[in-house]
Amino acid sequence: MPSTPAAALSVQSMLPVLAVPWLAACEGPQSILDPAGPAARDVTLLWWPMLIVATFVLAGVTAAWIVAMLRRPRDFSPEEAKRISRRWVIGGGILLPTASIVLLLGFGVPAGDRMLPLRSEAPLRIDVTGRQWQWDVAYPGSSVVLVDELHLPAGRPVHIHVTSADVIHSFWVPRLGPKIDAVPGRTNVLRLQADEAGSFRGQCSEFCGTGHAHMVLRVQVHTEAGFSAWLAERTATAPAGGDVPAGTVPGGALPAPAAPGGARTPPRLVSGAAFPP
Length: 277
Ligand SMILES: [Cu+2]
What we know:
Blueprint: H1 5-24, H2 38-70, H3 78-113, E1 124-131, E2 134-138, E3 145-147, E4 149-153, E5 158-164, E6 169-171, E7 180-182, E8 188-192, E9 198-203, E10 216-222, H4 224-237
Parallel strand pairs: 1-5, 4-10
Antiparallel strand pairs: 1-2, 2-3, 5-8, 6-7, 9-10
The chain binds copper (II) ion.
The site of copper (II) ion (CU) has 7 residues, from loops.
């Protein structure tokens, strides 16, 4: 604790500065605390109670530890010691974890179910393939193939079929929903839905090599009519073999290693497009 008024003042003046990293994470194109779809909202609603409960548990354990350090030792009879230790084992080792797990499952299972693919209807399907270090995005039924760019309609569920061409990546658009792994030889399906039109940002969230940090995804959500018009226009203008923007790796092929065992071509940023602020 500060021992002088000047020290107390300097601590107080530092508090806003120390709070900046915390508050800065509350909004922005990649914040889970600023959800823009039902699945992302479920994640946020689960995250806040977990943070609050974890904070109380930390405070309680710390307080118990301080009390234990400060209290004078007492002699307990064997029966007393047994009764006290049994109370802690039953309360802290059985009742508390059981209540926590039941509460978490009560919230988590229905929320997880709302992120799974729908069985009753066939929503729009988009195929996403991760590769070092880019996202190939294909729209089945059309010749449109994009790199590091995903277009969605607002207000309806979309099934994102995610796989990988090389190592394990993880597809994540934090403001729209949870992440899902992109695993070679396997296709995982994630249900995403955006409330309304806007720009978002996704990021590979599984370390996949030196270009991992640059493996970003620009997400544009259109209105329903705007999406149909965009897809029709891109389908009409897409060249044979895919609509891959200039400057990206043709067809998503991996660049050759610089030398046997050497590093691949350094990653490039998203096809020249600016990210939303
Ligand atoms: Cu990665």
